[in-house]
Amino acid sequence: LRIAAGRAIPKHTHRGLEMTLVLDGAFSDEAGQYGSGDVCVADGKIEHQPIAGLAQDCLCLVVASSPIRLTGPLLRLLNPFLTR
Q1: pTM (predicted TM-score)
Q2: Rounded Cα gap, residues 84 and 28, in angstroms
Q3: Which of 36, 46, 48, 66 is most exposed, with minimal Cβ within 10 Å?
Q4: What average pLDDT does this structure show over 48-62?
Q5: CA torsion sign, 9 to 58 to 39 to 20?
Q6: Whether the Cβ atoms of residue 71 and residue 47 lie closer than 8 Å to each other
Q7: Rounded Cα distance, 20 and 35, in Å
């Protein structure tokens, strides 16, 4: 996953477990701030919107056991297309 500097990905939650390893750059979300080498673990109890730091793009390796579930007012209409 690459998030452009200062940009956010859509607000979402998870249908399973999602583990995100920050390879380069940084991002923050409702749970905290993550830099190079940090791991963020999220599940269905967490709703978040990762935002890359302003200084540079954020590059992450993401492993998810299930598709995400978008929670924004318009983007949630895409959820039926995000299933396995």
Answers
A1: 0.83
A2: 28
A3: 36
A4: 96
A5: positive
A6: yes
A7: 11
Burial of 20 (0-12, 13-18, 19+ CB in 10 A): buried
Please report the pLDDT score of residue 5 as a whole number: 98
- Give the closest residue to 30 by CA, choosing from 12, 17, 16, 14: 12
**Token digits of residue 38:** 């940090």
Give the type of residue at 32: G
Nearest alpha-carbon partner for 10 in 72, 82, 78: 72
Query: Residue 79: its pLDDT value, please?
Result: 58
pLDDT score of 42: 92
7 alpha carbon, distance to own chain's centre: 12
pLDDT at residue 15 tops 70: yes
Alpha carbon distance 49, 57 (integer Å):
16
Asked if the model's pLDDT at residue 19 lies above 70, the reply is: yes
33, containing H or E segment: strand 32-35
